[in-house]
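Structure (tokenized):
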């Protein structure tokens, strides 16, 4: 786990395989903003393949978030096509022969913590870039 994530108390994780419904297995908060990390799991091997965030901080210090929070971003956010992840992830997993995904999510901006979601996303991606000389394979750009 990345040290930047240790301070966040509202967090959880779930597993997803192509036989699952992302709507049903996703346990992310529907009103929180933050980041999520996606790992491809093959037996004992785990590889970070994506980091993403949701929620924008306005200049008055308030949070602007879309309805559905982290849950909606994970389940319905577009990736690989003009369609939600609940459809594109299973298709991509089959293409790449990924057995299972583990998704870890963290609420970074709430009453207790006021950390900009994209700031933490950038820190995690920078650490990954420093270690691997590239971004996780499902992150197109940052």
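Design, position by position:
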């Amino acid at each position: 786990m990345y040290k930047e994530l240790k301070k966040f108390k509202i967090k959880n994780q779930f597993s997803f395989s192509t036989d699952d419904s992302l709507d049903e297995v996703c346990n992310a908060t529907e009103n929180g903003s933050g980041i999520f990390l996606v790992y491809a799991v093959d037996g004992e091997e785990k590889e970070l393949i994506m980091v993403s965030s949701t929620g924008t901080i306005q200049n008055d210090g308030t949070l602007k978030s879309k309805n559905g929070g982290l849950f909606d971003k994970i389940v319905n956010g577009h990736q690989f096509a003009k369609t939600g992840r609940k459809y594109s992830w299973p298709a991509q997993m089959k293409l790449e022969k990924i057995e299972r995904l583990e998704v870890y999510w963290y609420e970074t901006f709430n009453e207790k913590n006021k950390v900009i979601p994209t700031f933490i996303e950038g820190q995690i991606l920078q650490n990954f870039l420093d270690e691997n000389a590239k971004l996780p394979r499902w992150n197109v750009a940052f």
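Reviewer-requested clarification: The beta strands are 11-16, 33-42, 45-54, 56-57, 63-64, 100-109. DSSP finds four helices and six strands in the chain.
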